[in-house]
Amino acid sequence: MKIHLEVLTSTVIKRKKPWSQVIWLGKERESLFLLDGNRVSVLYVPSGKTKRNITKLSALLSEAVCLTSTTDGLHLLGIQSSGEVFIWQKDSDELKTICGLSGLLLSEGISLKGNCRLFSSVDCTELLLVIDFKCIFLWQQDQADLKNHTLSGKWLRVPTHSGTLLPLPDNKEASTDATFYNSEVFGKCCQLSIVFNKNKNVHVTTLLIHFDKLSQSIKQDKEDISISCTWSHIDWSLKNSAINYEPISMQGAIVCQYTHNGQILAVGINQKSPAHTCVLFVSPFIQTVLISDIKGAGVKDPASKRGRLVSEHCNSLQDQCEHNLLAS
């Protein structure tokens, strides 16, 4: 397959430290935003200049521990060290907040100082928070509460069982992604996968959450939340399919991305030699894995075994329109 790309414009960002995320925000008036930790800037492409002062967010970002956006690019979300979540609608410049998590974290003895990932449904009525790959919290908005600036809802810690395999602290390569979607069979769902190395195998732990009235009721803090949670596991040996498989344990060694329909999880497996990097296409539903060798794409000398530059690793995966996967 050949894809012809045209460069419409380019710019040089005047900052020595690279930004961790580049996202589009807004529908009526799109803008390019740069995210890095608790910093947010608007990029002006023609000049390469950035604007840091976003009035509604300036007072919140200093305490933010995690930033993310909805898949449609309409909302920017963040969670502060206090446990308060903020949701900014870019087009209307409207800011809403979610409280109630701090008490739950305190009772569970959990801190937000670790690795945090926040995922949101498109309409921001459900949130999924993952802390250190082992503590998972779900928030559901009360349907009657639609216009208040402080949104009311229920926080729940998603239960795990003794057989749930999760990364250990020394699994620095661990990566996670989640998606909210609607299924004709199951209705509204959320799917989360955590990928890490285990005994030289690639292990995928997946959580499937169903949101419907027929689901089992989970009771917490005298509140009933009707969801069902199903855990599944895939343990895949790349040694049988990739002769030169040499796993590495470092942050960013594994990257993963769900397709928008939640059917396929793409997993980029970086190795000691970037020329041997491969992509797994995992279907958690039917326990199927397909391996794709990217043939050393992006590596200056794919035939060389000496190339071990982190800059030549696969750093991100993005599901584009018509299910085209962009690896960079």
Automatic annotation (TrEMBL):
Top-level lineage group:
Eukaryota
Q: Which gene encodes it?
A: 106060098
Q: Which organism is it from?
A: Biomphalaria glabrata
Q: Cross-referenced InterPro entries, in alphabetical order? A: CPLANE1
The entry's protein name is Uncharacterized protein
